Backbone:
């Protein structure tokens, strides 16, 4: 999805808000090493900001007491961490076997035609971003679309059209 | 044909809550558990013949028996809820419909193996599912089923949910451990096996969600009751996910050993739109395909699938109707495994990329017979030459399509030759 080779700086310092701070403290005691907090911390950052910035990586490294390069390595390996801001609605379409068999391509083609949105892109107004992803574990109700974490099953172009109209 | 052991509470309203689950029997095995010696629990699970439901089918009790005794190190349990193999969608039902069944299973397993810290590794995409699971864990803590004194006994057990973030390879057990340790998900070389040196270098058991969720029944009703379902070597029931070109795709709990075609036709409503059957993928995208005539005498158990030179896998059955373009399907498969390669072994990282280039060339109608043969040769040369079996998860099915649907590849190549001649 995003360019995973470098980080973007915001120019502003990062820190967890009070809720995330408390979550961090609750979780850290569950692991025998602080480095185990790398993935959970990246999730906390992404839930708070929507994406992971250079400052956030530095903050996590500092907070955990590890090298920024270790946090960077995880942030780039795991494709769900966004290394740049995404659209307000991040649309993930499953592209693998069962969804492919049951017509996921029509949905992708529709988005390309209707919104001019291709996989890997963000719409100009910042409303949508699109990503083709691997099996989402809902193959029995394929094709499947996930938008900002919510699953939409048995999708087709008509259903997606009415769904998108509600997302402003 | 359907039976309800794992899914017994799925239909209940609010089945995910402690109140409903408990009213319908959740946690009732705990008194018996703590009155039984851990070795006896392991023996009962061994006797039940329960096989791991993550794909490989390794007997659960036997695996637990590999743990070295008295090492002075903690023993960890990692529950595999990564569920990312295309066409696999069964564990999710346990997570959202009956998370307390999973937690009860975790308590049973943890007690049997002497574990006090369990991690549930759940794929990052399961955003709504993780909330339900965490809420159930919180309820279990509040009710005293987890924490310092499990069910009032002098036994501490902490259960922590660890979220993945979009890497299929983390379903591989050692990559999963790396990921919990905060690293990128690159599988480790074995040996040492995790039972000896796993999470944080300590003895570790990794089991699939469904394997663990099968334990309460076994402890409650006994190994013989469990073995009453299924076949001799494949006892019990399984949550099968049927997808693709059938009238009624979905998740069905069935005893093992049923005739494959009968299941497709009666349980899943048969091939959709009145079309003809072209092939069946029996257990997730990594399992070799069966032709209709091969499927005719296949049954849904580990032995029959092995006899048919394929695998039972994860119970994710995919039905292909007559319209499927096999060459396109193979491209879709290679694309997936290539994308998900962790990159540390050259045969996997480069080999799958090479296979992808060749299949794309064939699809562009620029391929030759040599390309088809090269694809086949690559399958043989990549397999089993890598740290983990992700590469084989690609080459095994691809080889089956190349061998069983060779004519479809040849047709693309023939088109290419005609186009050449016309120029
Ligand atoms: C590439 C790869 C992906 C895997 N994905 C999963 C998975 O998503 N879930 C799972 O339970 N096992 C998965 N496995 C199997 C695990 O390595 C391991 O065998 C299993 O979790 C053991 O549990 P079980 O004995 O209860 O089956 C995968 C294996 C490989 C090689
Ligand atoms: S086979 Fe592929 S996924 Fe497995 S360890 Fe090697 S490179 Fe990584
Ligand atoms: S193949 Fe699309 S959800 Fe599984």
Residues:
């Amino acid at each position: 999805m995003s360019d995973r080779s470098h980080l973007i700086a915001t120019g502003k310092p990062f820190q967890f808000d009070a809720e995330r701070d408390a979550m961090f403290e609750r979780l850290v005691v569950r692991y025998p090493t602080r480095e185990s907090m790398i993935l959970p911390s990246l999730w906390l950052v992404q839930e708070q900001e929507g994406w992971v910035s250079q400052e956030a990586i530095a903050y996590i490294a500092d907070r955990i007491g590890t090298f920024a390069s270790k946090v960077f390595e995880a942030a780039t390996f795991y494709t769900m961490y966004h290394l740049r801001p995404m659209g307000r609605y991040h649309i993930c379409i499953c592209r693998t076997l069962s969804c492919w068999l049951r017509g996921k391509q029509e949905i992708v083609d529709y988005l390309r035609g209707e919104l001019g949105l291709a996989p890997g892109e963000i719409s100009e107004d910042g409303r949508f971003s699109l990503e083709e992803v691997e099996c989402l574990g809902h193959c029995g109700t394929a094709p499947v679309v996930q938008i900002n974490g919510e699953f939409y099953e048995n999708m087709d172009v008509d259903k997606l059209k009415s769904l998108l109209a509600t997302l402003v | 044909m359907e039976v309800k052991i794992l899914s017994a509470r799925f239909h209940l309203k609010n089945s995910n809550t402690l109140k409903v689950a408990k009213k319908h029997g959740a946690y009732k095995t705990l008194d018996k558990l703590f009155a039984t010696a851990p070795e006896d629990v392991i023996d009962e699970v061994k006797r039940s013949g329960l096989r791991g439901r993550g794909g490989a089918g390794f007997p659960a009790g036997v695996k637990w028996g590999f743990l070295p005794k008295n090492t002075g190190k903690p023993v960890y349990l990692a529950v595999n809820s990564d569920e990312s193999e295309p066409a696999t969608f069964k564990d999710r039902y346990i997570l959202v419909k009956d998370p307390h069944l999973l937690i009860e299973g975790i308590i049973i397993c943890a007690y049997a193996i002497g574990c006090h810290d369990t991690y549930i590794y759940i794929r990052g995409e399961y955003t709504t599912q993780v909330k339900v699971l965490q809420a159930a864990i919180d309820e279990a803590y509040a009710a005293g089923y987890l924490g310092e004194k499990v069910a009032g006994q002098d036994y501490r057990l902490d259960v922590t949910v660890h979220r993945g973030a979009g890497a299929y390879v983390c379903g591989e057990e050692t990559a999963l451990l790396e990921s919990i340790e905060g690293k990128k998900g690159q599988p480790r070389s074995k040996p040492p096996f995790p039972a000896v040196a796993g999470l944080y270098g300590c003895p570790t058991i990794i089991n699939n969600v469904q394997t663990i969720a099968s334990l309460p029944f076994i402890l409650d009703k006994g190994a013989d009751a469990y073995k009453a379902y299924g076949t001799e070597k494949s006892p019990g029931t399984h949550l099968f996910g049927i997808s693709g070109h059938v009238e009624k795709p979905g998740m069905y709990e069935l005893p093992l050993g049923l005739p494959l075609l009968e299941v497709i036709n009666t349980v899943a409503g048969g091939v959709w739109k009145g079309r003809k059957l072209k092939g069946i993928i029996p257990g997730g995208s990594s399992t070799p395909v069966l032709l209709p005539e091969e499927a005719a005498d296949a049954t849904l158990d580990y032995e029959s699938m092995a006899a048919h030179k394929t695998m039972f896998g994860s119970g994710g059955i995919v039905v292909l109707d007559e319209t499927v373009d096999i060459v396109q399907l193979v491209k879709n498969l290679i694309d997936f495994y290539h994308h998900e390669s962790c990159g540390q072994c050259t045969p996997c990282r480069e080999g799958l990329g090479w296979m992808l280039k060749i299949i794309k060339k064939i699809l562009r109608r620029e391929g030759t017979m040599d390309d088809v043969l090269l694809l086949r040769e690559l399958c043989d040369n990549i397999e089993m030459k890598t740290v983990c079996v992700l590469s084989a998860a690609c080459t095994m099915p691809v080889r089956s399509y190349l061998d069983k649907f060779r004519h479809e590849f040849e047709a693309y190549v023939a088109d290419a030759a005609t186009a050449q001649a016309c120029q």
The radius of gyration of chain A is 18 Å. Chain A touches chain B through 44 residues (CB under 8 Å). The helical segments of chain A are 18-28, 38-49, 54-64, 68-77, 97-101, 104-115, 157-166.
